[in-house]
From TrEMBL:
The keyword Transmembrane applies. It holds the Pfam family MFS_1. The lineage of its organism: Bacteria, Pseudomonadati, Bacteroidota, Sphingobacteriia, Sphingobacteriales. This is MFS transporter. Keywords: Cell membrane, Membrane, Transmembrane, Transmembrane helix. It is found in: Cell inner membrane. It is a multi-pass membrane protein. GO terms for cellular component: plasma membrane. It comes from the Bacteria. CDD domains: MFS_FucP_like. InterPro entries: MFS, MFS_dom, MFS_trans_sf, MFS_TsgA-like.
């Protein structure tokens, strides 16, 4: 991989990008119960939102992979920056399509808008994730990606509050549920995407290029960590998305909390806010340039600061949110047990999420609710750790491998759809056995990487003992 341009990386620009698509992606979770009630949908029909949105990731990534296979890597030809700009423009167009969908109050048009928006995000995922990984030493790639993913989680944390306010209150027509309530919010989002595109076009970013002669064929699939990582991304995204998608419906259920959608959106923010806390902690924990003693201080201080930030955002009392502190302490302890090893930490977090899901399935009331909400804390480092473990050492095949990993985001389309079918047939609570199975695979992937894959300083990822 050759690099040209400035060595000082404007991570602020990329952080803004991650924030934006985190915000818009989480808006799906806000819209699903809104559209379900508006169009009188079953759980299965409501999950078509995620099927179309994340199905676009698979479609776009498949097209990208086929082009790279037969004609060479497109990103290597147009550059990472132009790929990011194109993704932003397509995302903005997708947001614009919500206006006619809302005006005509047609569920099919909403699904089409979600699909176009997903195509734009596909290109952003293919370009931005590996770009962040390439912007420094390989051994600190997980730390960098956790950092920008933390700001992605900040977007997902405030989206339920801001988005819920805009749709359920500010733009609600006559105080009642209506399709028109989504018109102006998504038009505003479209303008923001176009403005960010203009901003990014003016930011100077380093240029990475791979040797085209090395990139023909299906070379990325010769790496075992990538092949297993594709499954890891599939099941991780599927589990995270389906939990977020069902969160409001789960919490508002009479057996759990029995509260309104307007209140439940605050607890959805805690789910995504937990991911933000964990990603900031992961960025510190997985950074080998920080001493162990300083890591403890930084991580505890960061936890307190972000908890205070979340508390200031959500419309909940300290008594309502205080239980969350105990799970943050558990998250800190898990990081220390993981000892800054990406694969070991990944397996540990997956095991904890399986336990939390079982608790949420077999208990009632606040215990069940808090077990499900706290899963966000342990989802935190999964994307970045799976992604970096999968593409480390791919060299010229990095973008091709990245497109395959982004293709695996198809899990976000299929797993919620399957859980929707389960919820309709066996009930929403027992349907959470499905994400527990997903985390079981992730546990195995982390175990495989910890035993058979070694990341060498400055060197490639290779098969181990």
């Amino acid at each position: 991989m050759k690099k040209d341009g400035s060595g000082s990386v404007p991570l602020y620009a990329l952080t803004l990008l991650f924030f934006m698509w985190g915000f818009i992606t989480c808006m799906n979770d806000v819209l699903i119960p809104h559209l379900k009630e508006l169009f009188q949908l079953t759980y299965l029909q409501a999950m078509l939102v995620q099927f179309c949105f994340f199905g676009a990731y698979f479609t776009g990534s498949l097209i990208y992979f086929l082009i790279s296979h037969f004609h060479g890597d497109p990103i290597n030809k147009i550059g990472y920056k132009n790929g990011i700009l194109l993704g932003l423009v397509i995302s903005g167009i997708g947001c614009c399509l919500f206006y006619p969908a809302a005006s005509m109050s047609l569920y099919g048009l909403f699904l089409g808008a979600f699909f176009i928006l997903g195509l734009g995000f596909t290109l952003l995922q293919i370009t931005a994730n590996p770009y962040v990984s390439l912007l420094g030493p390989e051994e600190t790639a997980s730390s960098r990606l956790n950092l920008v993913q933390a700001f992605n989680s900040f977007g997902t944390t405030i989206a339920p509050i801001i988005g819920g306010f805009l749709i359920f209150q500010f733009f609600a027509e006559g105080g009642e549920l209506s399709a028109g309530a989504t018109r102006m919010p998504y038009l505003i989002f479209a303008v923001v995407f176009f403005v960010v595109a203009v901003f990014m076009s003016r930011v100077k970013l380093p240029l990475f290029k791979a040797d085209e002669t090395e990139m023909s064929g299906l070379g990325a699939l010769k790496f075992p960590q990538l092949k297993l990582g594709i499954g890891g991304i599939f099941f991780y995204v599927g589990a995270e998305v389906t939990i977020g998608s069902f969160m409001i419906s789960f919490i508002t259920h009479d057996d759990i909390a029995g509260i309104s959608h307007a209140v439940a959106k605050n607890y959805l923010s805690l789910y995504w806010g937990g991911a933000m806390i964990g990603r900031f902690l992961g960025s510190i924990s997985l950074n080998n340039n920080i001493s162990s003693s300083k890591k403890v201080i930084y991580m505890v201080a960061t936890s307190l600061a972000i908890f205070a930030l979340i508390f200031s955002i959500v419309d909940l009392s300290f008594g309502q949110i205080s239980v969350f502190i105990g799970f943050i302490v558990l998250n800190l302890a898990a990081f220390f047990i993981g000892k800054s090893a990406p694969a070991r930490t990944l397996s540990l977090f997956a095991a904890i999420n399986i336990i939390l899901l079982l608790v949420s399935i077999f208990t009632k009331g606040s215990i069940s609710m808090w077990a499900l909400i706290s899963i966000g804390l342990f989802n935190s480092i999964m994307w970045s750790n799976i992604f970096t473990l999968s593409i480390s050492g791919l060299g010229a095949y990095t973008s091709q491998g990245s497109s395959l990993l982004v293709m695996a985001i198809l899990g976000g389309a299929l797993v919620p759809l399957l859980q929707g079918s389960l919820a309709d047939s066996i009930g929403i609570q027992y349907s959470f056995f499905l994400p527990a199975v997903c985390y079981g695979y992730i546990l195995y992937f982390g175990y495989f990487c910890s035993k058979r894959v070694v990341v060498e300083t400055g060197g490639p990822l290779r098969s181990g003992h």
